[in-house]
Design goal:
alpha/beta; four-stranded parallel β-sheet; two-stranded antiparallel ribbon; 4 helices
């Protein structure tokens, strides 16, 4: 079985301005996460939610599903959960069986990590 991936990448950040666009090993952080999700054999669709045109352009380059996030889900006080709920309500094509939330600020995933996670999710009946 396969899962869908949701990537949340706000344009603003108080701690590190434009952190999701910071270059890491030659690519913006958000791009590494997109590439890792697209290279997974157990990922069906990749959704990128952002309030930033620059971040959405990176997603468009990789031909993934883009969701423009409203300001109320992209402020310093907005929770990731509220943004994920916005993605779920915005797209009826998203999986109802398994969703993987990947953060752009954690790009050091090994090849196979995402596939292994999804495999175990179904095999061990995690919720």
């Amino acid at each position: 079985m396969k899962a869908d991936v949701i990537i949340l990448a706000r344009g603003g950040s108080k701690g590190i301005p434009k952190k999701n666009l910071k270059i890491f090993c030659g690519k913006p952080l958000v791009e590494w996460t997109i590439i890792q999700a697209k290279n997974s054999k157990k990922v069906d669709q990749v959704f990128l939610s952002s309030d930033s045109t620059k971040i959405l352009k990176i997603g468009n380059k990789h031909k993934i599903r883009l969701i423009r996030r409203p300001r109320k889900f992209a402020s310093d006080n907005s929770s990731s959960e509220s943004a994920i709920r916005h993605v779920l309500k915005s797209n009826s094509n998203i999986s109802k069986k398994a969703i993987v939330y990947l953060e752009p600020t954690s790009p050091l995933r090994k090849k196979g990590d995402i596939d292994e996670l999804i495999k175990n999710f179904f095999k061990k009946k995690w919720d």
